[in-house]
Amino acid sequence: MLERFGARDATDLAALIARGEVTAEEALESSITAAEAINPQINAVVLPQIDTAARNLKAGLPRGPFRGVPFLIKDLGCEAVDFPSHNGSRLLADTRYGQDSAIFDRIRATGVVTWGRTTSPEGGIGAATEAAVYGGPTRNPWNLDHTPGGSSGGAGAAVAAGIVPFAHGSDGGGSVRIPASCCGLFGFKPTRARLPDGPYVGEGWAGMAIDGFLTRSVRDTAVILDACAGADPGAPYHAPPLARSHADAISRPPRRLRVMLVETTFTGAPIHPEVRAVVQAAARLLEGLGHVVAPGLPAADVPMMMRAWTDIVGIGTALGIRKALKGRPLTADLVEGVGRGACAHAETLHPTRYLEAVGQIHTFGRQMAAAFAGVDIILSATLAEPPATIGRFDHRTEDYVGYRTGPGGIFEYSPFCAVFNASGQPAASLPLGFSSMGLPIGVHLAAPFGADEELIALCAEVEKCGDWLARKPPHRVK
């Protein structure tokens, strides 16, 4: 869609619209046409509300930084009156909302033209997007036999395929960064509570979940984060204030930083050799920029954290399912296997386990804070291997714990991202490499709590060292 207008990213397209070289109506039509052409292959866009988008255009758009740019919101959260949602689940199909969420209000104020939603796995628990409610898996535009990741897999696939220049996502255990890695995009998880959660929830997954965006450029992320940041009224807590905006931070390089290089998992287990090679190349790039890179491992109890994460998410999933069932039986036609397994697992836990698990997450956050003593950045892979094949992480199994933490499970595949959801620290996935099969490989950078500006400035500096968007997926609208 961008190529039609000669734009590189959402910022470029907004500038063309502002100058009158492209109309918002033309941009919307191009986005919808792109979806009609490519969505049957990738199954990423659902619940289109084209009449709503046209009505909003006619009424006049807010004069925000992305005025007139087509946009899609994730089919999980981001509650909006005009955008019903399946939330990735047959149980919650066609849910309608009585008021807009704070994050949607702020997205709308940027001037984007939202016209639909993107697929997510049921409950947002998964590193793949293959929910039964959508009639089939969401596929990766780089290779249709592979997943675009999860839980914001539809957002990643839609942006990579050229349907929209950027899209909304959310991240409770890597759900923005995993699709960014799988789809060759930029994904940034801000510091805990940097973005609003209300009014529908006070916090997601004990504060581990946060909204975010899948973008083609660092500057698109910086600008939309600035537009959306800040606590909503009644929030239980908020992130430390930024010293300067994200957009201002990327306008100049960061200071020279001390970087911990992790070539394994955080527990020392080996990762795929092609992924390790991309991480090593990223370390050399940072050294070439003058940063000081040294190998290391964070001294934190990752297995404890992952057990606590699994229990918190299981309990949260069970709560949501039981509430939506409204007394109906928990049956396979309403809830997929992993969701039913989460309910069963939650029933095995002592009533005090939730608070115990939250306490362990807080302990882990302090351990990760200590891991940054003498270090400014932790560099690792985003995923331990290239994008998984379709079906590897589908939701048919009822072994919820095994699905997450068992042999060959999601934590072996994605051992890095959830660490920073638990710690609340900002983290990003940068599209810096490819496998021998031509699949994207992301590199992960993380910073201390509240150091969002320094992290995004480093991401922008790395972005300038090459053209990470020069290579296009084969399943993409021209």
Automatic annotation (TrEMBL):
UniProt keyword annotations, A-Z: Hydrolase
Domain Amidase: 26-455
SUPFAM superfamilies referenced in this protein's UniProt entry, alphabetically: Amidase signature (AS) enzymes (SSF75304)
Gene3D superfamilies, A to Z: Amidase signature (AS) domain
Matching Pfam families: Amidase
GO molecular function: hydrolase activity
Family named by the database record: Belongs to the amidase family.
Entry protein name: 6-aminohexanoate-cyclic-dimer hydrolase
Provenance organism: Gemmobacter lanyuensis
